[in-house]
Design a protein that fits this description.
Radius of gyration of chain B: 24 Å
Number of helices of chain A: 4
CATH class of the largest domain in chain B: Alpha Beta
Largest interface: A-B, 20 and 30 residues
CATH class of chain A: Mainly Alpha
Number of strands of chain A: 0
Order of helices and strands of chain A: HHHH
CATH architecture of the largest domain in chain B: 3-Layer(aba) Sandwich
Structural class of chain B: alpha/beta
Shape of chain B: globular
CATH topology of chain A: Non-ribosomal Peptide Synthetase Peptidyl Carrier Protein, Chain A
Number of domains of chain B: 3
Distance between the termini of chain A: 30 Å
Radius of gyration of chain A: 13 Å
Helix content of chain B: 25-40%
Number of domains of chain A: 1
CATH topology of the largest domain in chain B: Rossmann fold
CATH architecture of chain A: Orthogonal Bundle
Oligomer: heterodimer
Number of strands of chain B: 27
């Protein structure tokens, strides 16, 4: 399930009004989401959530569902780190 | 090492590329030839002895399948450590390897097949070597009437089959003037031209280009460029392998998602050289995290060579500012002017000095006059691509092909010992650009103090991230959309300073007036671009008869570009 917050960041970066994202959606299906845009989208997500992706993490992403899971995990790690 | 033997023997005698590879394996069997890099894994290190043994196995097995001298073998395989010996095995048989881009998942399978079929027809592809995943998409081409393709193989699956195969194969007689390889221009219409290069063109180029960049046994090349691109194939495959220099090969698909990989490889492997298209300077400078650079040192890098897109001064500045504290030296920022038709480079800036920059009066330049900018002039900074390399001559000519004086902009014509033989099966196309031994490049530029500055193109090709895109391909795709007036479409590129490359814009005439419907149509146009693997960044929908026609009766790209951009002001 893709959250509204993540969806908004992606749509904003792609300059799209709306798009029906599902867990199984892959980047190549989304208008404007090419390899150059991909890295800009990831940077916007990092900024929005205050997280940092590692290169291996992003290389292994296969679809939107995995991106959503990665974001949730990173946010949790970040809040644990700050709590310590 | 080949470089050592080269110093003793300047003439290239009657050897072909394979002979140099054999020589490298004989003289330095345990030296590293290719370091195959995969993110998160230990790199696989091909040493010369093992690489050539594997290449010989492939040659032997391919010969048993019927592949013979002169056959064109299309290779459509992603980053794989067995790609290299397979390629070399094809070359060993005197066949012509031709690396083609593995289709991006967004490219519609029918469009891919259509493009490949057109290419097969034009270039006479004899065999397709691909991955099991792509085989069902390619297979129908075999069954078409008049197909030139004799067979489709999936060599990355041959592991067990190749057991027991002897590494001996029958060496065909191949002379240096015979074809070595076939390169294809980009495009999706199947009209791509196949550039045939001879062994002597490739070997002369390796020697002379190697000299121009001061290539030596101290060098190690690091490459993320795809090997279907001339910059990847020649600068980062033929040059290092023929000269006996190790090369690190990074997966282009991984690099574009994680550009830090290039810096990691340069740092860990102590790489000395890398070739990059202009957009990569921006991408690296803008998209790499500071904390990922903690262990990176780039002191070993002596040349980063900008090529295959217009070289932008601000991209060099940005890259230097970002990475100078990690060891990048200003003099490492080099540039060259290259194309498949001259094997690769025609010019190259000198090693050890940064590419020169000159500030020109922009208005005068638009009139074709090269004049240094004065204090209050609007200036355009042009970056040099260096003087011609040895064996290469340059002329600047007018539209009728006559020389024009220094200080004027014209078309760049090149004569080179590494000139291509022909566009395969296209004598007319060859004759259009190859006249009396000179290749007319279609690029506009000028010479200043003996150095070449490339500033534009005669044709309307758009270059996005080092990839040439023909506006016709986009216009054809968009013209077929319901709601767009057929033939009333123009596509063009605009400079995007932030990414250091071009963005694609489309202007299409429509009778649609409803704003909601127009919004939907814009989306359909962007999706049509995606199906041919092209990202359209801006769509302008305009009413009928809005587009300005040229004298040929077709909408003029140049005039309509100006008109469309004015809409935004």
């Amino acid at each position: 399930m893709i959250t509204e917050r993540l969806k908004k960041v992606i749509l904003g970066e792609l300059n799209l009004d709306d798009y029906y994202f599902q867990d199984s959606t892959t980047a190549n299906l989304v208008p404007g989401w090419d390899s150059l845009k991909h890295i800009a989208i990831l940077a916007s997500i990092e900024k929005e959530y205050g997280i940092r992706f590692k290169s291996l993490e992003v290389i292994r992403l296969k679809n939107l569902g995995q991106l959503q899971e990665l974001v949730a995990r990173k946010v949790e790690e970040e809040s644990e780190r700050k709590g310590e | 090492m080949w470089l050592v033997s080269l110093q003793k023997d300047i003439s290239l005698d009657d050897r072909i590329v394979w002979d140099y590879w054999v020589e490298n394996a004989r003289t330095a069997p345990e030296n590293e030839a290719i370091i195959h890099w995969v993110a998160g894994e230990e790199p696989y290190r091909w040493r010369w002895r093992a690489l050539m043994m594997s290449a010989s196995f492939y040659a032997s097995y391919l010969q048993a399948q019927g592949i013979k001298k002169g056959d064109v073998c299309a290779i459509i395989i992603r980053h794989n450590r067995d790609f290299y010996p397979l390629y070399m095995g094809i070359s060993a048989l005197g066949a012509l390897p031709s690396v083609l881009a593995y289709p991006n998942p967004r490219l519609h399978p029918d469009k891919f097949r259509f493009g490949l079929e057109g290419m097969a027809r034009r270039s006479g592809l004899d065999w397709v070597l691909t991955e099991a995943e792509l085989e069902p998409i390619v297979r129908p081409l075999l069954l078409r009437q008049g197909s030139t393709i004799g067979g489709i193989f999936t060599p990355m699956e041959w592991g067990e089959k190749m057991e027991g195969v002897k590494e001996q194969f029958e060496h065909p007689e191949v002379t240096p003037n015979e074809p070595c390889l076939l390169q294809h221009s980009s495009g999706t219409t199947g009209l791509q031209k196949g550039v045939v290069l001879s062994h002597s063109a490739v070997l002369e180029h390796v020697k002379r280009y190697g000299d121009s960049v001061g290539l030596g046994e101290w060098d190690k090349i690091v490459n993320w460029l795809p090997l279907y691109h001339d910059m990847g194939l020649i600068a980062a495959f033929y040059v290092p392998l023929t000269a006996g220099i190790p090369v690190v090969q990074i997966d282009p698909f991984e690099w574009v998602v994680a550009p830090i990989l290039l810096l990691e490889a340069l740092s860990q492997e102590k790489g000395t050289m890398s070739w990059l298209p202009n957009f990569a300077y921006n991408l690296l400078a803008d998209r790499v995290h500071e904390e990922d650079l903690e262990t990176i040192r780039l002191d070993s890098v002596r040349m980063i060579i900008n090529c295959s897109e217009p070289v932008r001064a601000e991209s060099h500045d940005k890259f230097f500012r970002r990475f100078s504290s990690y060891g990048i030296k200003r003099e490492a920022l080099a540039a060259c002017y290259a194309m498949a038709e001259t094997t690769f480079a025609a010019t190259q800036t000198a090693a050890g000095t940064p590419a020169s920059e000159i500030s020109l009066d922009r208005e005068m330049l638009s009139e074709g006059i090269v004049r240094l900018a004065k204090k209050n002039d609007e200036a355009r900074i042009c970056v040099s691509s260096g003087p011609p390399i040895s064996g290469c001559d340059l002329r600047i000519v007018d539209d009728s092909g006559k020389d024009i004086p220094e200080g004027r902009v014209g078309e760049i014509a090149i004569r080179s010992v590494s000139l291509f033989t022909e566009y395969r099966n296209s004598p007319d196309k060859t004759a259009e650009v190859l006249k009396d031994g000179w290749y007319f490049s279609g690029d506009y530029g000028f010479l200043h103090r003996g150095e070449c500055y490339v500033i534009g193109r005669k044709k309307d090709i758009i270059i996005v991230a080092g990839k040439n895109i023909y506006p016709e391909d986009i216009e054809d795709a968009v013209s077929q959309i319901k709601g767009v007036l057929p033939g009333r479409v123009v596509a063009f590129g605009i400079e995007d300073i932030s990414t250091g490359t071009e963005q694609i814009c489309v202007v299409a005439e429509t009778r649609e007036e409803n704003e909601e419907e127009k919004k939907r149509l814009r989306m359909v146009i962007i999706e049509a671009g995606m199906q041919i693997d092209i990202t359209i960044s801006r769509v302008y929908l305009v009413p009928p008869r809005w587009l300005i026609k040229s004298s040929s009766g077709k909408p003029s790209r140049r005039e309509n570009k100006e008109r469309a951009l004015a809409l935004e002001i």
